[in-house]
Amino acid sequence: MKHGEGEYVFSLDSQQNQNLNKAAVRPNNKVVKFDRALIKKKYIGSFVDDLMHGEGKLEYGNNSSYKGSFLKGKRSGKGSITYSFAKMEYHGSWLNDRWHGEGVIISSDP
User: Fold this and answer.
1) What percent of the chain has pLDDT over 90?
2) Which residues contact 81 (CB under 8 A, 6 or more apart)?
3) pTM of the model
4) Is residue 20 predicted with pLDDT exceeding 70?
5) How far separated are the first and last CA of the chain, in Å rounded?
6) All domains of the chain, ordered by start, with CATH?
């Protein structure tokens, strides 16, 4: 059981990667689906009871990354994500792995 600070590299058959949620980003009214693009690759940060919890950084297989707060294995609280494939960033509040409340979207896509 993971507890405290550490690093975890996800395997390709990891349960977390099999239960991907479909989602879409709409920068400048364009839709980018990334259900398979955000496969978890590596987490560096705090764990509680085997879950990502506290501050940490989550890297994805497509070079996107999230840095911020986690609560019971999910992105919750303040955090920032950079979507490498969509040339977009989101900085703001999260709840249950989703954007929630106030935040800023930065898009370099013309």
Assistant:
1) 45
2) 64, 65, 66, 67, 75, 89, 90
3) 0.74
4) no
5) 46
6) 4-107 (2.20.110)
